[in-house]
Amino acid sequence: MTQKRDFNAVASKWDEEPRRVKLAGEITEAIIAAIPPSTEWDALDFGCGTGLVTLQLAPNLRSMTGTDSSSGMIDRLGAKILDGGFSNVRAELCNLESGNLPSGRYHLITSAMTLHHIPEIVPLLRSLKTLLHPGGWIALADLESEGGRFHEDPTGVFHQGFSANELSTMLAEAGFSSISVTTATKVVKGDQSFPVLLATAQSL
Prior knowledge:
Layout: H1 18-34, E1 42-46, H2 54-57, E2 63-68, H3 71-84, E3 89-93, E4 106-112, H4 121-129, E5 132-143, H5 164-173, E6 177-189, E7 192-203
Parallel strand pairs: 1-2, 1-4, 2-3, 4-5
Antiparallel strand pairs: 5-7, 6-7
C-alpha cells in the first residue's frame, strides 16, 4: 500500500509544469462540452489543487468552491483568487475522505486527476452525492488504465488509472444515473500517450 503524497511540499511550484496547465485547460473544455454550465449554478471542485480547473470554470458559474486536503494548495488558490479578483470563488481546506464535507448544496461537482489518489472511491462518491441538488451533475476526469507507467514517483497513487467500465460501475454503486464516460484528452510524455477519461453522471 502506498503512502499519501505530501502535496504541501509541491504546492508552490505546481503551476510551473506546462503539461499540467495544458491538461487543466483541456479538461475544463471537456467538462463544459459535456455539461454546459449555468451562471445560476453553484459548483464544487474537489481535489482542486491550486485551482487550475477551478478558476477556468468559475466565470461560467454563479459560484465555485475549490476544496482540497492540502493547506499548501488551498493557500495558493486563495492567493490566486485575490490576485485575479474572483468574487465568485472561494477556497476551503477540506478532507472529504474523512467525512469533512463542505457546507452548502451544489448543481455541479467536478474533479480533475484526483481519483487515483483516493484509496476508497465509492464511499467518497456517495458523500459527494449528498451535496448535490436533485438533478445535479458530477464530472470526474482521470487517467485511463495505464499500468503504472504515468507516475515516475508512485507515492500517493492508489490506482493506476481506470477503465471506462470501472468508472461507470463506481458511479452506479454510489447511486448516480445517466452515466457517460468519454475520452476528454490525452497527456503525452516522451513517446507515450496517456488518455484521460471524463465520467459524467447525474443525481436524481
